């Protein structure tokens, strides 16, 4: 047995102007005194961004090294030679740019090939006036979108809603979207850095320059048949797993009450606790995870039991 325990990794922290302090204050990330940490990449294998094992017999190994040296142990029968998913937390202190991600087919044809990006957001914390922009309003086609972008009023054609903690928002490739200010989000996505920026709210920097936009690429990959995206809400009265997203890229399940099991099925599983706590138990040991902690259960790992603490949430992705 290579390592009998779930794999815990050091977070890869990212700073941008739209970040804040919630990653440290609510999720315990090591951000120090800085106030602009926007993302904590929990599980990642994408170029130089690599998860590194924190402890145990594999301490210091990157996720890419584990894939190379212990592929079947980690991935089972899955054929990927790069880890296909990326788990991150986002502290959105200001509204993000309006974006759209391409499909795998489009990504493969780019100058620097990459996967497309299908993703899902779990709302961990939200200010009352926060907004999610997800999909175009009904009836908006290419002409209407192009005119809105050119006139600086893209918001007028976007579907939006006020999210609540526990909402899940599924964003398939081709969906126009933006995360609003005042949100703490757990995001599962394809392991890709492929993003086209359609609109940046007419913002300029101190020199009067606007950020680079990718209008033609964005319009080319937009799915105009998609329409408005509505959140999937967790049923707070239901015990055990609730499936929120089940697509060809990943399955996302959540638990907000009770206990359940996971693993032992020959597939890897990503686990994280957005809030509260959860105890993970094998046949020989148990570990309690607090808010913001994540781990990776290798495909060869035995089934484990999960017991939730009070007022907690647990996410599982595979």
From TrEMBL:
Binds 1 zinc ion per subunit. Gene3D superfamilies: Jelly Rolls. Residues 10-110 form the Phosphomannose isomerase type I catalytic domain. Its cofactor is Zn(2+). The active site is at 197. Keywords: Isomerase, Metal-binding, Zinc. Zn(2+) binds at residues 101, 119, 177. GO terms for molecular function: mannose-6-phosphate isomerase activity; zinc ion binding. It holds the Pfam family PMI_typeI_cat. It comes from the Bacteria. Residues 244-307 form the Mannose-6-phosphate isomerase cupin domain. GO terms for biological process: carbohydrate metabolic process. InterPro entries: Carb_Metab_Reg_Kinase/Isom (IPR051804), Man6P_isomerase_Firm_short (IPR014628), MPI_cupin_dom (IPR049071), PMI_typeI_cat (IPR046457), RmlC-like_jellyroll (IPR014710), RmlC_Cupin_sf (IPR011051). This is Phosphohexomutase.
């Amino acid at each position: 047995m290579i390592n009998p325990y779930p794999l815990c990794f050091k977070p890869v922290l990212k700073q941008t102007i739209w970040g804040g302090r919630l990653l440290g204050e609510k999720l315990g990330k090591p951000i120090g005194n800085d106030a602009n940490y926007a993302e904590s990449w929990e599980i990642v294998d994408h170029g130089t961004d690599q998860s590194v094992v924190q402890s145990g017999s594999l301490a210091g190994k990157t996720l890419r090294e584990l894939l190379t040296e212990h592929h079947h142990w980690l991935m089972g029968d899955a054929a990927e030679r790069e880890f296909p998913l990326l788990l991150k937390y986002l502290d959105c202190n200001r509204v993000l740019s309006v974006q759209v991600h391409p499909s795998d087919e489009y990504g493969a044809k780019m100058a620097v090939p990459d996967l497309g990006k299908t993703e899902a957001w779990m709302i961990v914390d939200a200010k009352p006036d926060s907004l999610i922009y997800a999909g175009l309003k009904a009836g908006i086609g290419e002409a209407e979108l192009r005119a809105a972008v050119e006139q600086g009023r893209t918001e007028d054609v976007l579907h939006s809603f006020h999210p609540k903690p526990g909402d899940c928002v599924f964003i398939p490739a081709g969906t126009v979207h933006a995360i609003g200010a005042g949100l703490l989000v757990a995001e599962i996505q394809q392991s890709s850095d492929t993003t086209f920026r359609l609109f940046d709210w007419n913002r300029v920097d101190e020199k009067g320059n606007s950020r680079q936009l990718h209008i033609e690429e964005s319009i080319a990959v937009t799915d105009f048949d998609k329409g408005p995206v509505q959140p999937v809400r967790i049923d707070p009265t239901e015990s055990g797993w609730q499936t929120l997203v089940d697509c060809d890229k990943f399955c996302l399940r959540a638990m907000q009450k009770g206990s359940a099991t996971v693993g032992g099925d020959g597939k890897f599983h990503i686990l994280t606790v957005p809030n509260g706590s959860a105890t993970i138990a094998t046949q020989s040991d148990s570990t309690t995870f607090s808010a913001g902690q994540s781990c990776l259960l290798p495909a060869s790992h035995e089934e484990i039991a999960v017991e939730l603490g009070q007022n907690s949430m647990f996410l599982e992705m595979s």
